[in-house]
Design a protein that fits this description.
Elements lengths: L11 H11 L2 E2 L19 H26 L13 H8 L7 E3 L5 H6 L4 H8 L23 H15 L6 E6 L6 H12 L4 E7 L2 E2 L2 E2 L20 E5 L3 H19 L2 E6 L19 H8 L3 H11 L5 H24 L5 H6 L7 H15 L1
Parallel strand pairs: 1-7, 2-3, 3-4, 4-8, 7-8
Antiparallel strand pairs: 5-6
Length: about 375
């Protein structure tokens, strides 16, 4: 028997090289919008390509409007999303309305596209109870604030979908910092063991607030963390909408076929702070870092691609952005017109059945509110 291909188990360098070889970087469209991997091109119609780009433009506009509102003190917590439009919206584009979304706090764009009214997203940021009252046909939970906890929840939801023979999956997101949390491994491990219908996303934007990715783990990729759970992992250019969609669609099909979950690492960037409540990226990132990622802007890349195909022009974009701005202004108005939350309303939803001490507090506050 030939031993040429047998790897010495004590050759640790060779083991690491094999992992690096397996987890190659998937890209379809380069930074200029040119197709560099025709074999992986997704089967999207012209109308679908335009719809996806509109989603991405809308997301950037939402980010910009939310930034203004946050700086005016008209939002609470806000995590900017500029730069992650391909990772977030192109991934979401691959799923169905009946699939279950378990978002993190930066995943508001996907949550809105999945069916949450925009004004409710604004109310959620303000901490208003109405921001967590969802339409009955919205298959999602409110954004998770505990880093990585949504991975554990997604594993359970995905198993539930499988046991009920649903032709749907759960999908969830965290950042590179979240991938260092124990909940993330527990989630992918449980889902892998039971072959649950789940697609896990790690949106690697380079920093866990201010901690660089290379200070978080010695792993060459974050996708390879799937190996420990015995499930597939893949790393994709998170600024390339076509690649993100193609990988997402393949992962969903894999899970629905009964094969279990997939971990997708989308290498992306956030152009703005981690949040607008105290983070200053200039303290831990130099200007060269911003300049380099600006060249990879997912909107510029996709715009170039569609323009070259004759599917998009400046006139279309100006018209769209006018419509989006009107929609966002209307959402702000609806949020502002929502009656202020009462303390009693907050207490009423803390538990399905109020505890004795909360019951007492309810009586006190309702009396004060009626005066």
């Amino acid at each position: 028997m030939s031993t040429d291909n047998i790897v010495n188990p004590l050759d640790f360098h060779k083991q690491l090289e094999e992992v690096d070889r397996i987890f190659q970087f998937v890209q379809i469209m380069d930074e200029t919008g040119k197709i560099v991997n025709e074999d992986l091109m997704p089967d999207l119609s012209d109308d679908q390509l335009i719809a996806l780009f509109k989603d991405m433009l809308w997301s950037r506009a939402l980010n910009d409007r939310s930034t203004i509102l946050a700086r005016q003190g008209r939002l609470g917590f806000f995590a900017p999303t500029a730069g992650q439009e391909a990772s977030q919206l192109a991934s979401h584009f691959a799923f169905e309305k009946e699939d279950v979304l378990l978002p993190g706090y930066r995943d508001i764009p996907q949550l809105i596209k999945h069916g949450l009214p925009v004004h409710k997203a604004f109310l959620w940021s303000r901490g208003h109870i109405e921001g967590n009252k969802y339409p009955e046909d919205l298959h999602a939970i409110p954004p998770q604030i505990i880093i990585g906890a949504q991975f554990v929840q997604a594993a359970g939801v995905g198993l539930g979908l499988k046991k009920r023979n649903k032709n749907n999956v759960a999908f969830t997101y965290t950042g590179d910092g979240g991938s260092s949390q124990g909940d993330v491994y527990e989630g992918i491990n449980f889902a892998g063991a039971f072959k649950a219908n789940v697609v896990f996303y790690i949106l690697n934007n380079g920093y866990a607030i201010s901690t660089p990715r290379d200070k978080q783990t010695a792993a060459t990729t974050l996708a390879q963390k799937a190996v420990a759970a015995g499930i597939p992992g893949i790393q994709v250019d998170g600024m390339d909408a076509l690649a993100v969609y193609a990988v997402s669609k393949a992962a969903r099909e894999w899970a629905l076929a009964g094969n279990g979950p997939v971990v997708i690492e989308a290498v992306t960037s956030r152009f703005k702070p981690h949040s607008l409540s105290g983070d200053d990226p200039k303290r831990y990132r130099d200007q060269a870092s911003f300049d380099e990622w600006d060249k990879k802007d997912p909107l510029i890349r996709f715009r170039n691609y569609l323009t070259e195909k004759g599917l998009w022009d400046e006139e279309q974009e100006v018209a769209l952005m006018g419509e989006v701005e009107e929609q966002l202004q209307e959402a702000v108005k609806l949020a502002d017109e929502t009656p202020r939350q009462k303390v009693s309303e907050f207490l009423e939803v803390m538990f399905e059945k109020p505890t004795p001490n909360i019951t007492k507090q309810l009586e006190t506050f309702k009396t004060k509110e009626e005066q």
